[in-house]
Amino acid sequence: MTISCQSSFQNNNNTHKQESTGSLFLVATPIGNLEDMTYRAVRTLQECDIIAAEDTRQTRKLLSHFEITPSMLFSYHEHNKAASGPELIRYIIEGKNLALVSDAGLPAISDPGADLVALAIGHGIPVIPIPGANAALSALIASGLPTTTFTFIGFLPRERKDIRAVLSPLRSAQGTILFYESPHRVVKTLAHLHEAFGNRRIVLARELTKRYEEFLRGTIEECTDWLAEHPPLGEYVIVVEGESKEDAEMAESAWWRQLSIEEHVAHYEAADMPRKEAMKKAASDRGVSKRDIYNTLLDKAEQ
Ligand code: SAM
Q1: How many domains are there within the chain?
Q2: pTM above 0.85, yes or no
Q3: Ligand 1 pocket residues where CB is under 6 Å
């Protein structure tokens, strides 16, 4: 294992150059409400030599609102990241400070920013987060669902089998689960969540920080019915409650369901339980009489 330690000397001028190499600044931008732009984000964008943006048209609007004139505005998105990433890294190595922004919120969350960060770290470039708005965490904190442990998934894949592969291991996750979704797919996604998790409690957080911000709290079925009456509009975060203690206990106590009666009894015998005791325990797990267990084992032995 190679250990690396990056310590950034942070003073009032956060884009202050100490070395000949520049730094990569990950600058959060608002997810709707422009007042969520931080002072530090504005200053960083003003001071950086280059701004790399997912959608340069969108970013120009933001920059013009805050009267920021970028020296260089580069496009960096999913479809050009293979070529654009190394080029941006070359600029940083030459000594330029680069600010990466996404269309909204934190860069590197559900966008290709994480690839640029990995590339920068691979070249020993300091990576400096400039925190701010984020849709998933804003939805989570206002959801009313537990916030102690949570899993962020972002967008689900498109193919049914890939969706299942993501969702099935989450069935027994006890923390809250967070998804991103567009208005066009939200109803379909609720159907996938229902199939995977059953009728759990969810919160649909829509248009966060914007004029028509809305939190819809209910079960998956209730929210689906609501969307049938009120067609989805705007961007969504879907917040799903984790597996309840009761469901977890039920799943735990039903571990034997996949076993035959023979296997069930053998399981206890393998744990050094006398046969009579093992039969009694299997009968009690299954809610049947000891005689039923005995008769089944007898039938099997006679076959
Ligand atoms: N980087 C962003 C962040 O930090 O939250 C997320 C970008 S991701 C490409 C876009 C998705 O985030 C949207 O499809 C939606 O699910 C969610 N999102 C963004 N803005 C939102 C808002 N104002 N309200 C609800 N969800 C939002």
Answers
A1: 3
A2: no
A3: 31-32, 102, 104-106, 109-111, 134-136, 180-182, 205-210, 235-237
